[in-house]
Amino acid sequence: MKKLSARRRHPLAALVVLLLALAATGGLYAAFAPAEKAQADTSAQSLAIDEGKKLFAVGCSSCHGLNGQGSSDGPSLVGVGSAAVDFQVGTGRMPAQQPGAQVPRKKVVYSQAEIDQLAAFVASLGPGPVAPTKDQYTSTDPNDVSKGGELFRTNCAQCHNFAGQGGALTRGKFAPSLDGVDPKHIYEAMQTGPQNMPSFPDSTMPEEQKKQIVAFVRHTTNEEPNPGGLALGSLGPVTEGLFGWIFGLGALIAVAIWVAAHTTKAKKS
After folding, report:
1. In this structure, which topology does domain 134-223 adopt according to CATH?
2. CATH class for domain 39-124?
3. How many of the other CB atoms lie within 10 Å of CB of 123?
4. pLDDT tens digits, one per residue of 145-188
5. Is the pLDDT of residue 198 over 80?
6. Got the DSSP string for 26-48?
7. pTM to 2 decimals?
8. Cα dihedral sign for 76, 82, 84, 87?
9. Has residue 10 got a pLDDT over 70?
10. Which residues, other chains included, contact 119 with Cβ-Cβ below 8 Å and sequence gap of 6+?
11. What count of Cα atoms within 13 Å lies in the side-chain half-sphere of residue 252?
12. What is the rounded average pLDDT of the residues 85-90?
C-alpha cells in the first residue's frame, strides 16, 4: 500500500493517467467510428459524379456547356441542384427535342440510376435544391388533403385550374395537367419552379405545406371518383354549358328538322 501511495504522488503520475485515457479514447473511437462507411459513401458519390459527367457530356453539353455554364441554346445549371435535374430529366422534358415556348413532358430517355448520376454531377457544380426523400412528399395524415386543397386554390389553381387539369397561358405557354404526375415530381416542381412556374422554397412554403399540396393533387387527380361521368376537363360551367349548347341544342334542332320533314311527307301522301 505504501508503494502504491508513493507512486500516486509521483510527479509523472498525472501525465501517465492522461496518456492512458487518451489512448483508451482513441482506441474506442477507432473501433466504433464509421470510418469505412464514410469513405465508401464518399467513393460512391465521386463515382456517381464521374459517371454523371460522362452522361452530361454526351446528352446535355451541346446546349448547357461542358461544365454546365450555359450557352445561347441553354441556361446555366450552376446552382440548380439535384431536384431540378431529377424533375426535368425524370419527366422526359430534358433532353429537349426542339426549342419552343415550352418544353412538354415526354417519354423518359434515361434510367433512374442514370438520372441520379446526372443529378450528382450537376449538384457538384454549385449548391441548390436537393431531390426530396419519400418521407418529404408522402403524407400519412388524412387531413392533409383538405389543407392542401386550400393551399392549392390559393397558390396554384389560377394556372393549373382548381382540379389540376392545366390551362393555357400567354404566347404559346401552358400550365400542364397534373393528372398522373409522380408525387416526387410535383414536390420538385414546387422546389425549383420549372419554366413558367414560380418556385416555392422552404422559406416561402414550408416542407409540410408542400407535402399537403401533393396529397391534394394526388387525391384529386388519381383517387377522387367522378360520379357525374365525363369530366369535360373539370373546367366547370363553361365547358358544360358549351357542351349543352352544341350537342344538346344541336340534337333538338336535328330532331325538329326530322319531325318537320316527315310531317311534310305525310301530308303530301
Report:
1. Cytochrome Bc1 Complex; Chain D, domain 2 (1.10.760)
2. mainly alpha
3. 25
4. 999 999 999 999 999 988 888 888 888 899 999 988 999 999 99
5. yes
6. HHHHHHHS-HHHHHHHHHHHHHH
7. 0.72
8. positive
9. no
10. 52, 82, 83, 85, 86, 89, 131
11. 5
12. 97
Give CA torsion, residues 132, 221, 159, 195, to 10 deg: 40
d(CA 193, CA 17): 60
DSSP reduced 3-state for 104: coil
For cell 448547357, name the residue: 64
Q: At 254, which amino acid appears?
A: A
**What count of other Cβ atoms lies within 10 Å of the Cβ of residue 136?**
17
Cβ proximity of 212 and 144 under 8 Å: yes
Mean pLDDT of all residues in the chain? Answer: 84
Residue position matching grid coordinates 446555366:
76
pLDDT computed for residue 37 by the predictor? 53
Residue 181 grid cell: 404526375
pLDDT level of residue 247 (50, 70, 90 thresholds): confident
Residue 162 near residue 151 (C-beta atoms within 8 A): no
Sign of CA dihedral 218, 224, 230, 233: negative
Cα gap 187→95, rounded to integer Å = 21
What the block records as the C-alpha cell of 219 is 387525391
Q: How far is Cα 55 from Cα 74, in angstroms, rounded to an integer?
A: 17
Lowest mean pLDDT among 30-34, 118-122, 250-254: 30-34
Could you tell me if 176 and 104 are in contact, meaning their C-beta atoms sit under 8 angstroms apart?
A: yes
State the average pLDDT over residues 52-74: 93
CB-neighbour burial class of residue 257 (10 A; exposed 0-12, middle 13-18, buried 19+): exposed
The per-residue pLDDT for 42 is 80
Start-end of CATH 1.10.760.10 domains in the chain: 39-124, 134-223
Please, which residues bridge with residue 167 across strands? 175
